[in-house]
Amino acid sequence: MFAWQFIDLFSLPSVQRSAIALAIAGIAMPIIGVFIIGLDVITVRFAVMHMALFGTAIGLWVGIDPTLCALIACVSTGLFLAPLSEKPGGLAGSMSFLMTISAAAALLVLSISGVNANGAFEILWGSILAVRRQDLALIIAIAICVLLFVAFTHRKLSILLFDRELAKCSGIRVGSLTAILLMLIAVSIGSSIRVTGALLVDSITLLPALGARNLATSLKSMIRWSVVLGLTGNAVGFVIALQLDLPPGPVLVLVAGAITLITYLATTRKRAADLVTH
Amino acid sequence: MTGPATISFEQVSVCFGNTVALDKVSFEVGAGQKIAVIGANGAGKSTLLRSLLGLISIDEGTVSVDGESARTSIDWMQRRLAVAYIPQRPSKGRFPLSVKELLGSSRNPEVSLSIGHDLGLSHLLEQSVSTLSGGQLQRCYVARGIGSLAGGACALVADEPTSALDFNGQKHVAQLLTEIPATLIVVTHERAVANNCDRVFEMASGVMREAGTS
């Protein structure tokens, strides 16, 4: 593609919306990824996806906005998981439990209500090139919430994600903070699936955070690195996809994966060099 | 600091399944008193400290600080602010945290940093806690504990706070802990620490008895 054709593409409102959505998601979602890694709830997205499907099914059945119902289901996921985080090994088991139960409940509701299952899935599964104005507004709202949350709770978050017991001993309300974190994670992931599609959620959320963990020495630096890596991955991936006329989802994932791998290799080499020096 | 507190255990029992970790333990530590708890591994020493902080559930009895027992989660939160804690196996965490941030998590970060400086941590402040050696990590938690005391905690409980330190480090920390103007319960295997305490208790199979005074 020629440069002028490429620039022309950016004059299209849908491409502009996608670019803005990716830029904003590139800031907020890697921070959510940092929370996910910190709480060790990497499989939470499966529980969230199924709960969102259940919410959508309920919405379609009773005639309430399915997206709103999906969001309520996501918030409920966070509320349900929070108390279980206190139990030993609680979150991993409860996420599997929630995933299985919500999937079964969603299918049952779809079956009873006679709603087309594909319709429910279509409401949930979005694409970055099909971002609507309301999707963009949702991403912006989530990004603001995430940034405000980090700004107001940064010190407490550092300790909570480092060690729950230390957080308890520091007078931090571990249960409430974990509940808010889980709700934020659930709503962000639920909304992102709707906006960007399931495949892209991992690349914009987890991969930058995983890369950042290789480079960071503190929560602050991990958040900074995750945002830098997230924005870089999204920008490079989106440009490559447009330039080569490839589907953006897989390209964004592969670019984010390559960046994560580079951070891993770079830090492994550095550690090896440090060992030799000492 | 709000002033040293009295700590009292009344008929406290803690069980893990069929294992009795604490068996009707009763004793009182006066305000500003320093006691050492000694005993074999698995005797219940760490459980004793953790039950004081509500980090494990008590099956029977009460643990009160200045006559106040904790019932609700808010009470326990206040208890953990009132009683500073140096854990037996300081956590390296599952997440990046710099030494400076760890010290900053105490109730008085300036004092923690200053004690950290005394304990030779100054050059490590920007380093991730996960890269520290066992001894360096233990020094961090000691500095943090003392900082919390300076920030308003009225007692300190320390679980083998010198176990990973070299000889000089043990002496230094033992001196720091036993000179602080606060109530102290320290679980230890080090004679240097126990000798500097007012009373020594011995635990065996969850039962506690006074072994003597220093």
Molecular structure report:
The complex is a heterodimer of chains A (278) and B (214). Chain A is mainly alpha-helical. In chain A, 85% of the residues lie in helices and 0% in strands. Chain A is globular. Chain A starts with a helix and ends with a helix. Chain B is of the alpha/beta class and 214 residues long. Helix content of chain B is 33%, strand content 29%. Chain B has seven helices and ten strands. Chain B has helices at residues 45-53, 73-82, 99-104, 109-118, 134-150, 167-179, 191-195, and strands at residues 7-16, 19-29, 34-39, 60-65, 68-69, 83-86, 155-159, 183-187, 199-204, 207-213. In chain B, the strands form two sheets. A six-stranded mixed beta sheet of chain B has the order 6-7-8-3-9-10, sandwiched between helices. In chain B, a hairpin with a 2-residue loop joins strand 9 (199-204) and strand 10 (207-213). Chain B is globular and about 45 Å long. Chain A binds chain B through residues 37-38, 40, 155, 158-159, 161-163, 165-166, 168-171, 173, 175, 213, 216-219, 221-222, and chain B through 53, 55, 73, 77-78, 80-81, 84-85, 87, 91, 93-98, 101-102, 104-107, 126-129.
Summary, kept brief:
The complex is a heterodimer of chains A (278) and B (214). Helix content of chain A is 85%, strand content 0%.
Number of strands of chain A: 0
Counting DSSP H or I runs of 4 or more residues, the number of helices of chain B is 7
Q: Which chains share the greatest interface?
A: A-B, 24 and 27 residues
Number of strands of chain B: 10
Radius of gyration of chain A: 20 Å
Which regions of chain A are unreliable across 5 or more consecutive residues at pLDDT < 50?
Answer: none
Percent helix range of chain A: over 70%
**Helix fraction of chain B?**
25-40%
Q: State the oligomer.
A: heterodimer
Strand content of chain A: under 5%
